[in-house]
Amino acid sequence: MDPMPHMLKDKIQPLIELVKIRQKFKDLGKTVVFTNGVFDILHRGHVEYLTQARELGDCLFVGLNSDTSVEKVKGPGKPLVKQEDRAIVLAGLMAVDYICFFDEETPQNMIQAIIPDILVKGGDYQISEIVGRDIVEENGGKVVTVPTVEGFSTSELTRRIARLMIEKEKIR
User: Fold this and answer.
1) pLDDT for the residue numbered 8
2) Which residues of 91-118 are buried (b: 16+ CB within 10 A; e: fewer)?
3) What is the pTM of this model?
4) In whole angstroms, what is the distance from residue 129 CA to residue 97 CA?
């Protein structure tokens, strides 16, 4: 028996299903928001970001870099948390409606297939450099950046953990 609750599992869909779900929302006149990321060690910054993204529309689709994609983008040893585990943690968030993995370095193909109404990235991105911006804008959608939460990043968390481990070793 699969111990994963259906409610969580149902949020994780292949792209072909996400395209069908997107069409149903479009037919109902609902606004679909899309964002993407690695979401390796989920923290407050991620939760606030995803909540702000979800508040922009009726449904939030999250493109999640697969383990293969993360290694291409961030290098060996990443991600720290496997894709299935990252997806389940994201699925547990109220703000996230659907999650789909992508293997490429960018979610360009996913955005092209879904054509969301709103494309969201963190405030550390310039709108001109956001992948998929052209597709969304050409189809009447908009691209939005939301501010990042100061002091919260996966990189900062891993640096703090490393410093603590080094200090712990010095004490021994």
Assistant:
1) 87
2) bebebbbbbbbbebebbeebbeebbbbb
3) 0.88
4) 26
